[in-house]
Queue: 2 jobs
Job 1
Amino acid sequence: MLRDITIGQYYPADSVIHKLDPRTKLMATMVYILSLFLFRSLAGFAAVTLGLFLVILLSKVPFGYMVKGLKAIVVILLITVIFNLFLTPGEPLISFWKLRITEEGLKNAGFMAVRLIYLILGSSILTLTTTPNQLTDGLEKSLRPLNKIHVPVHEIAMMMSIALRFIPILIEETDKIMKAQLARGADFESGNLVKKAKAMVPLLVPLFISAFRRANDLALAMEARCYHGGDGRTKMKPLKYKGIDGIAYLLVGGYFAAVILLRRFL
Amino acid sequence: MNFIEARKLVHEYIRRDEDDNVESILTALDGVDLDVKEGEFVAILGHNGSGKSTLAKHLNVLLKASSGTLWVNGKDTKDESSLWDIRQSAGMVFQNPDNQIIASVVEEDVAFGPENIGVPTSEIWKRVERSLKSVGMIQYREHSPNRLSGGQKQRVAIAGVMAMEPKCIVLDEPTAMLDPNGRREVLDAVGQLNKEKGVTIILITHYMEEVIRADRVYVMDNGKVVMHGTPRAIFSQVDALKSYRLDVPQITLLAYELRKAGVPVPEGILTRQELVEALCRLF
Ligand SMILES: Nc1ncnc2c1ncn2[C@@H]1O[C@H](COP(=O)(O)OP(=O)(O)OP(=O)(O)O)[C@@H](O)[C@H]1O
Ligand SMILES: [Mg+2]
């Protein structure tokens, strides 16, 4: 199940989107997410759709691959749609038993579903076309001003990149421990929720112990390699804006203006 | 002055209870003297809990001595201001390859050390390339460390240390978690760095076979250095080694048993070749 999540997985390809600076992509993603909550008419919807699919095409990531990421939100999607469909007050279109569907409900449910799906698709473009390292570098640099108000930006970025490195290792380890406990007759499948939760204890305890040991070892190894925070640190791959980033900023600006104008006038 | 000089080095692990009262004191290093010249290959042997890792951590100033003195690269480890100099000149490789690789791409991990000491970007690229080449891992530079074998991961870790251009590398049981192939890969890489680049090597190990390459061997027991000398001198004292719960290489043991049984082979035979020659001379 953990393998189904495509968010956070890099898809290597040779495209313009891959070549953009991560800061540009972060900013564009923010603008895009904002625009999702701004449109309220079909014309706005069309503009957002156009923008999204243009970028998907440019990114050279197969559409099918991206859609796989939606599996993770099917349940949330269904709940949102059902609630919006049945609980929005207004003129009833169809009613049966105690339930009724209103025109507003239909519209709300449709837009909410589209927003959620677009949200996942849009943000997965970011993670599919940007390596985790670029992403954390981009975050670190974009958020650097927050250092002034004592937000430990470098440390947060370092934590994120270490987490990304160790997630696969810990997943593998969970698998190993699970098999070891299964071999000793542990049962993770049957019983009610409480029983299942209890069955997790012999899984979680060794996992936590090993995670703490790893953290300890890693801290020592980092210190031995002269790590002492972000001060005076240089980079092997420093971020640099290029020509295409300028063009991208202009296009994103144009897109945002269009969405706002459409919200006003259409 | 030697590259590393330890005099009467003592380290105590002090356990305290909640009210900060001393509950128990464990003397992990008990008056250790150690001398390592630049370019030497020194091995440190010892049973579990004899204090080898504690000593290694001192060489990198990850621990501070309770008493005694330790100079690394002509600098006193008590001096706070030379901390980063010492860590840069005496790099450290640990036992578990997974827990010392920081980045998700091989070359970025190798760059981690130079980045920390503020090496300019263009120089980092050169160093990364040079050190990955020196351990034979250059073709994996863009791989994820998760897909490498244990021996390969350990060589990446060594490259990460090499990229800081240290004079000395301390390796704390670098092969303990590896299969025989991985073990050979790592030892070959280490031997090569020592021979071709003149890097001082301090190898801590459980495996007697790995000690044969060393110029000198220290044997530790209970926090003390109990024997030191050339591998040949050390391995000719089979009884003493056994009393410190250490094994000797199988060939040496065979020669020892032969001597005990009255066959006049010389003491301290280390390799199969030597034993064959010694036996041929007899008959
Ligand atoms: N952080 C610690 N706190 C308290 N005691 C410790 C600590 N680390 C090690 N010790 C104790 O110090 C002694 C020496 O430990 P050390 O790890 O240096 O031995 P070692 O020779 O490296 O053993 P091994 O072969 O198992 O790695 C042991 O008795 C150990 O239990
Ligand atoms: Mg140890």
Job 2
Amino acid sequence: MFPVRVLGLTKDFPQGFWRPRPHRAVDGLSFDIPEGGVFGLLGPNGAGKSTTLKLLLDLLRPTAGRAEILGRPAGDVGARQRLGFLPENPTFYDHLTAEELLEYFAGLFGYRGEDRRARAGAALDRVGLGADRRRPLRQYSKGMVQRVGLAQAIVNDPALVILDEPMSGLDPIGRRDVREMILALRDEGRTVLFSSHILSDAEQLCSRVGILAKGRLVAEGTVGELTRHAGGTDVTASDVPTAFVDRAAARVRKTSRIADGRYRFELAPGERPEPFIADLAAAGAALVSVAPVGASLEDAFLHALGNDVRVDDTRGDRSAAS
Amino acid sequence: MTVRRIALVAWHVFKEHVRDRVLYAIAGFALLLVAASILLGQLTAGEDVKIIKDLGLAVIEGAGLLMTIFLGVGLVSREIDRRSIISLLAKPLPRWQFIVGKYLGLVLTIVVNVAAMTVALFLMLKYLDWRALPVERAAWDAAAADPHLLLATLMIAIELALLTAVALFFSAFSSSALLSLAFTIGIYVTGVFSLDLRRFGDTVEAPSIVSHVVAAIGWIVPAFSAFDLKAQVVHGLPVPASYVTLTAGYGVIYAAAAVVAAILVFSRREFT
Ligand SMILES: Nc1ncnc2c1ncn2[C@@H]1O[C@H](COP(=O)(O)OP(=O)(O)O)[C@@H](O)[C@H]1O
Ligand SMILES: [Mg+2]
């Protein structure tokens, strides 16, 4: 069973006051998320990540296509029994304490009495808010509200947890805690779907990713599949005969001369370095180094996006993350 | 489970209002009016019981109206504005249960407040009764702590429950609390004058199409003035039981229809 199935999902928002024209926020999205593991829905701001997640939750209605959650159509109340959701920049009720909020939500899931109290308490303990549970939420910092949001997303022991930008607005410790929590949820056998515009988060967490750009899924697969596709290899060698350099020109993406007889060859992504190295050795050159380059999700991301995205956009986010 | 979830939502509406300053502002305002009425009552000896009843019922209705309108228009729109609706609707809570829970929660808040004010009014009247001389008592149209007063406050409560449903409908409909406020007040005022609108053609020289439209509006809007039993009760006039049941039934059915309309509107809404 796929906890999340999306088929041809499309969402238009009317834009413009006098002559509203549809603005396509999500465009013919199709993907399935296998059970277990962490799926990262990645893409720059405005790519359609939140819109997609809201369609999964039936907060928005699709213009075309459909979505299934835990084997039921999106919006099915029964499926929500095993679903946890953290909205982007969540807000709750100022007048409630964290404990009251969690007990309210636990009650909506059908837990009663001591069980209800225990589950609310356990969820708050798990996100590190045990000591602040009796304080009203209006006194909470942004990071604490985010933690409350995570607690309410797991209070029902969900099979599927959907998190929209779970790390946004958090300090480094908060980000680390959220990362650890996502991995722990995975280890407990839950399926986690989260969205992020920060690639380093995804790289450390995801078993699979989908990359969105302008509402379209431009790449989808395991992190390994995507990075293998994107990254090449740098091979540096000395004592390289000029004849070999000329011969190699057809096989490499770029050749740079470092010093006399010393060259760096950039092998294209997907080109295996072993035969090339063997040929180098056969030509009498001495191997200096072999380095995989750009085997990061960021390169896969830029590769997948092509020219759709400004490079400084993602780099800025990335540096903010680290 | 359905009943439990609706009760949970309702309970949280009540809890939120109990912790809301708006409620205390209105309650304080009511208290002030009552204090003023006592003062006034002491100036006009003999008339004081009638004045207290008059003012007391008017204050109960007025404070109730303020509560209903100001808390009612925010009932749903506040959840949307602060976006708490997004996490709430991700729970196994069908939208219709959310609306019904919200409605019952505010009705509970209002009924509790009306009941508390009614108790306060009765205590005051009991005190006057105890203080009064037999000759004064003989001049009264009705007993001081007249149980018929309960009928008047019951009708006020039903009127407020109906207005709550109207406010809820606009709250579920529009994305602006100010707009729902304007609509709700507009419907209330129109409803209070619904009888005049129905008789528009008899009293005003106008083209028949206009008087028909005006009369139709008078029939469509909730007839809020029908719930007003204040004068009869204060003056000790009889109120036919059939009138009470008919009016109460009308209020309940109209309120239920407005809640259903709110559900239909709300179920189609999208949240971003
Ligand atoms: N309610 C809305 N009305 C109109 N346009 C919207 C609305 N919500 C989102 N959009 C547009 O849809 C696109 C995708 O938005 P979103 O899903 O929030 O992106 P992301 O979460 O990836 O940053 C953006 O261009 C955004 O402006
Ligand atoms: Mg977003």
